[in-house]
# Entry
Amino acid sequence: MTNPLAAFLAAWMFLTRIPVRTKALSDADFEASPGFYPLVGMLIGMIGALAFLPGWMIGGGFIAAIFACAATLLATGAFHEDGLADLFDGLGASTPERMMEIMRDSRIGTFGAAALFVALGLKVAALAAMPPVLALAALPVAHGLSRLSAVVVIATSTYARPEGIAKPVAAGVARSALIVAALSGVAALAAFGIFTGMGATVCALVGLCMGHLATRLLFERKLGGYTGDCLGAVQQLSEIGFYLGLLSWL
# Structure
């Protein structure tokens, strides 16, 4: 049986670029790691929230939002944003094979750059439009639930590549890991609901679900499954959907 701490560390190493000192991790640890994706996402969101505070003191909501997004970009190495850009670059391909070939190319194209610009712009604008206390609360929850959104794809879709960065979870998610991930997400959502109220929480959750479904429509109809880039795109658009849904309540 995989040690939960080892699985957490595997999730941390996979989703962030912040180094940790640990013994060598096994394939089993990485296969169990999706159970801790939401928790790692919440910690990434907390890093963003910590960066939001000095930004607010320096220049208000807009500067604070840029600080928060920059901090999460640094923490993850723009891992998920890269997936979003790669997915949009590949959407114009005529075949699934060509789409995956384009997505594997490290160079960013026009569609990818445009998608990245719009996504980052929406995140900054949405966070800047919120009352600062609400933005601080939303960051950890949005980052945690958007990683759960990616776990749902792993659990309910098919890995489309023979090899790739998401290969350790290509076989899906074990039931125990899925339960851990779901419970983490429910706990975060419940805490957010206590803080903001039911209406705001429901709107945020609806927005996240719409982001999840819209992204899946983009890649599943062409690939018949997902790749690591698709998971990054799901995380990004689910996070944005959470912010926009929350704003719709204000």
Observations:
- The mean pLDDT is 92.
- The longest helix spans residues 198-223.
- The CA atoms of residues 158 and 225 lie 5 Å apart.
